[in-house]
């Protein structure tokens, strides 16, 4: 990887989805990428089916039935992970808030790729007219908390170890 990798977001069409799945299985833990499904923490058929269905339903974007959009994170042109936005108030007349989530392959972590991808997705959210972007993580996930704080999020910790992050886009500068 170059010292200052070029980071871009790309739509997840079927060829990109295949490349993302390969990356996820080879270079990320299933728990970083999918919800806990079936027994065990590793990759299994149910998690792969979830991964494919999830990105296909998110292809229609924030205005689509899933009210969600996912992008491949490209690092120097290669898929490095994925990032998403999902409206949390899709049922209301005015859409103001979306939740984000991100995972990167292990070999792409720690080089500023996550921070750059998050800034790009916040810019997408602002272009879509949203007012805030939220994210959930855990007290144990120091990397995610640092990433979110560096992007301008305010973090709130609850007693159960959950951490909620809020980026107010009216005060956010790229
Ligand atoms: C969280 C994740 C996306 C971070 O991506 P990344 O490219 O490694 O992050 P960056 O290199 O852009 O670092 C952003 C900031 O977080 C810090 N950071 C990143 N990983 C860290 C870690 N494991 N421990 C401590 N700090 C960390 C960096 O030092 C940097 O801080 P700074 O801006 O104050 O210098 C990546 O580690 C990942 O995919 N993790 C698994 C999935 C996950 O936890 N997703 C988050 C769910 S909200």
Automatic annotation (TrEMBL):
A Gene Ontology molecular function term for this protein is:
acyltransferase activity, transferring groups other than amino-acyl groups
Entry's transmembrane regions: none
Residues in N-acetyltransferase domain copies: 16-174
Query: Which Gene3D superfamilies does the UniProt record give?
Result: 3.40.630.30
Q: Does the keyword Transferase apply?
A: yes
Query: What InterPro entries does the database record attribute to this sequence?
Result: Acyl_CoA_acyltransferase, GNAT_dom
Among SUPFAM superfamilies, the record links this protein to: Acyl-CoA N-acyltransferases (Nat) (SSF55729)
Which top-level group of life is the source organism from?
Answer: Bacteria
Q: Which UniProt keywords apply?
A: Transferase
The answer to whether keyword Cytoplasm applies is no
| The protein's name | GCN5 family acetyltransferase
